[in-house]
Amino acid sequence: MVESAAAEIIVTLVTGLVLLVGLISLVLPILPGSLVVIIGLLVWAVLLGAPVVWAAAAAGMVLTLIGWSASTVLTGRVLHRERIPRGPILIALGAALVGLVVLPPLGLFLGFALGLFGAEYFRRGKDWRAAGSASLQALRAVGIGLLMEFFFAGTAVSLFVLGSVIHLIF
């Protein structure tokens, strides 16, 4: 546990930067964003140890975990419903990585979309309508899942700010 007020401020500022990196990583997948937010909140709570800090961190970790889970479940359900196996998803992820290198950061999203459509196109016997429909549903689910995950992680960061203000002022 940190003892001085200056150290508490430094820990809080560094944690704020880590949480910002986590939120950015949700949109531009550099690191696992939700995991970064959860670990950042946990380390912040352990280092400061105040009850208000623990309450804000615990609530934030739970919200981030809910968003992360909801995103994964929603995307998985749609992929299962559209009968998209892991193969096309792995191809889409590979194409996303190539796109990230060729046209950063927009190439990540374009590569994923084009890779998924291409894999589905060949898997579905060159039926572009079926491939397009399945790919569109999958991309919509991924987008909605990303928004949900970002919303919950953003709410957790808001709780961090509120907990920090309460802890440092009172």
UniProtKB/TrEMBL annotation:
Transmembrane segments: 6-28, 35-68, 88-117, 138-169
Keyword annotations from UniProtKB, A to Z: Membrane, Transmembrane, Transmembrane helix
Pfam families reported in the protein's UniProt record: DUF456
InterPro entries named in the record: DUF456
Domain of life assignment: Bacteria
Coiled coil: none
Name of the protein in question: DUF456 domain-containing protein
Organism field: Garicola koreensis
Lineage: Bacteria, Bacillati, Actinomycetota, Actinomycetes, Micrococcales
